């Protein structure tokens, strides 16, 4: 081992904020289904607390021994619409409260999976779950919810999108005393993935094992620092530099995932190779793009810079671990990234540019505050645009917007912690209502017929 | 279990002696040592064997960090795998 390499690793962790963002335990709840809702919830609580009993403790022990921070320990579960659907309950909030109780007793930071997959249509369970979302998110602390409204194979469910516009607004209203915080825990997806360890969109797909461990890495600061050393050099060099550093970051994820999986006796699923920013200084994806030569993120060239970054991260990471999965790419949440917040405040970054960026990043319009009086149909139309980008381009896209109650453009919404703070951004004031009110389904694109 | 110990701080009398006597006390074997002055800072690295250590990793870590405070340097101990996995295939 060379001194230089040892010091490099230590510097990456201490100065450049390299960390493991999350170890997420995926737990299948399919064997907890019961026609009696209360019985199902007892089974859910028992299974989850048994499986995740040592998750937090093990994570802390690994942090201690390896000296690498593991920021979050989380649980994802089978979409609750599938589990609760067998019960006679009309409102599924009680299921969310059970998940919240599990989070409290196991000490995990979030539980994801208060979810429904309605890309083609609704089951009764899906319908009840979606209607319960505002109340569920207002009455729980640690539960995250997601709804998949489109996929490349099945097209876009415009009825679901119309409904979700209203659900987002209602969720904001129910959590108005916390500036619409509930919406920060609600993601609307197209092409949702079944092994994503990141919140708010994590759920445990039905094709997964009974219990599995997925890891999400992070480390935008490390990439930024590496690029500082190749200032002015051509993009071939930029891409190579990002690949090399992504390899190193991913190796950490692989090591921690394998170690945690051995100690917990749970199979190791995937490493999600994502660059996930935090509001902390030196932990920003926007600053990486600016390091490539943009005066501010959001200016012309941003989409190209992000495309290169997203691709190079994947290429570097793929060889560093046994199985890659989840979302894998660069995240561009606004409130969680100091550089994005600054760009919005200086007028360099708007919603339209962010939408373009989502065509080449790993997710979508993420953690964006919009005026509280934004109509539900406008939010639905934003979701439809994102879904279209995802469905046509064979990628995951998502919308996590917060119509901040009582706030207007220029004001700021404070969430605190990893969720950060968001300047309220302007939306297009022209109406999309007649478009959204058509309902129905947008058919699957021609390139989905691959058989 | 192997671990890497790093000591970084202002050069002073007795750092190596202080660290190695603490390790001996904990029954930790030193497999390799390298020491240099980088940018004016005393920088020492040790490869340790914790196989026969008299106490747990957490306690070794805590008592070394305490020793570091006394010596005016920063002492870290991390399992070797974090470095090998990052820098080698």
Can you offer a commentary on this structure?
The complex is a heterodimer of chains A (451) and B (89). Chain A is α/β, with parallel strands linked by helices and 451 residues long. Chain A has two domains: 26-190, Anaerobic Ribonucleotide-triphosphate Reductase Large Chain, CATH 3.20.70.20; 215-448, Alpha-Beta Barrel (Anaerobic Ribonucleotide-triphosphate Reductase Large Chain), CATH 3.20.70.20. Helix content of chain A is 42%, strand content 17%. In chain A, helix 7 (158-174) packs across helix 14 and helix 8 (220-228) packs antiparallel against helix 9 (235-264). Chain A is globular, with a radius of gyration of 21 Å. The mean pLDDT of chain A is 95. Chain B has 89 residues and is α+β, with helices and mostly antiparallel strands. Chain B has one domain (2-87): Alpha-Beta Plaits. Chain B is 37% helix and 39% strand. Chain B has helices spanning 15-25, 57-71, 81-87; strands at residues 2-10, 29-38, 41-49, 73-79. In chain B, strands 2-3-1-4 form a four-stranded antiparallel beta sheet, with helices on both faces. In chain B, a hairpin with a 2-residue loop joins strand 2 (29-38) and strand 3. The longest helix of chain B is centred in the C-terminal third of the chain and has 15 residues, at 57-71. Chain B is globular. In chain B, 30% of the residues are buried. The mean pLDDT of chain B is 92. The chains are: A alpha/beta (451), B alpha+beta (89). Chains A and B meet through helix 1, helix 3 and helix 9 of A and strand 2, strand 3, helix 2, strand 4 and helix 3 of B. Chain B: Residues 4-78 form the ACT domain. Chain B: Pfam families: ACT_6. Chain B: This is UPF0237 protein C0674_14120. Chain B: Belongs to the UPF0237 family.
């Amino acid at each position: 081992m060379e001194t230089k390499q040892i010091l490099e690793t230590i510097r990456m962790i201490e100065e450049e904020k390299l960390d493991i963002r999350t170890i997420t335990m995926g737990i299948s709840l399919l064997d907890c289904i019961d026609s009696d809702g209360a019985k199902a919830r007892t089974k859910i609580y028992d299974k989850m607390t048994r499986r995740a009993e040592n998750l937090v403790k093990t994570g802390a022990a690994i942090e201690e021994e390896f000296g690498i921070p593991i920021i979050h320990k989380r649980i994802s579960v089978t979409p609750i619409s599938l589990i609760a659907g067998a019960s006679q309950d009309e409102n599924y909030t009680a299921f969310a409260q059970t998940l919240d109780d599990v989070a409290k007793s196991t000490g995990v930071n979030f539980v994801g999976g208060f979810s429904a997959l309605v890309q083609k249509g609704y089951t009764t369970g899906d319908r009840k779950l979606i209607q319960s979302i505002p109340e569920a998110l207002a009455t729980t602390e640690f539960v995250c919810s997601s709804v998949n409204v489109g996929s490349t194979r099945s097209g876009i469910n415009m009825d679901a999108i119309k409904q979700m516009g209203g659900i987002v607004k209602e969720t904001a209203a129910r959590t108005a005393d916390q500036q619409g915080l509930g919406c920060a825990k609600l993601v609307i997806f197209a092409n949702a993935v079944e092994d994503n360890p990141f919140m708010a969109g994590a759920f445990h797909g039905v094709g997964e094992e009974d219990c599995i461990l997925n890891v999400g890495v992070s480390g935008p600061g490390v990439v930024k620092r590496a690029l500082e050393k190749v200032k002015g050099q051509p993009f071939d060099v930029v891409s190579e530099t990002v690949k090399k550093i992504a390899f190193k970051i991913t190796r950490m994820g692989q090591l921690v995932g394998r170690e945690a999986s051995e100690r917990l006796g749970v199979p190791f699923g995937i490493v999600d190779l994502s660059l996930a920013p935090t509001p902390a200084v030196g932990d920003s994806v926007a600053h990486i793009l600016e390091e490539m030569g943009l005066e501010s993120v959001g200016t012309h060239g941003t989409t190209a810079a992000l495309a290169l970054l997203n691709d190079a991260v994947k290429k570097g990471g793929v060889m560093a671990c046994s199985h890659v999965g989840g979302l894998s790419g660069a995240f561009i949440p606004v409130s969680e990234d100091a550089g994005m917040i600054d760009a919005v405040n200086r007028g360099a970054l708007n919603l339209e540019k962010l939408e373009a960026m989502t065509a080449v990043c790993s997710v979508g319009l993420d953690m964006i505050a919009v005026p509280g009086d934004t109509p539900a149909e406008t939010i639905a139309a934003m979701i439809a645009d994102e879904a279209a980008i995802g469905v046509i381009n064979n990628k995951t896209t998502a919308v996590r917007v917060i119509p901040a109650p009582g706030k207007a453009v220029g004001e700021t919404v404070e969430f605190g912690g990893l969720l950060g703070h968001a300047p309220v951004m302007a939306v297009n004031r022209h109406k999309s209502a007649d478009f959204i009110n058509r309902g129905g389904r947008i058919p699957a694109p021609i390139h989905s017929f691959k058989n | 279990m192997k671990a890497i110990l790093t000591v970084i701080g202002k050069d002073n009398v007795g750092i190596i002696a202080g660290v190695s006597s603490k390790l001996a006390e904990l029954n930790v074997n030193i497999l390799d040592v390298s020491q240099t002055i980088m940018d004016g800072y005393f920088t020492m690295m040790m490869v340790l064997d914790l196989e026969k250590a008299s106490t747990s990793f957490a306690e070794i870590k805590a008592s070394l960090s305490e020793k570091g405070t006394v010596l005016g340097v920063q002492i870290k101990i991390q399992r070797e795998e974090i470095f090998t996995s990052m820098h080698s295939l």
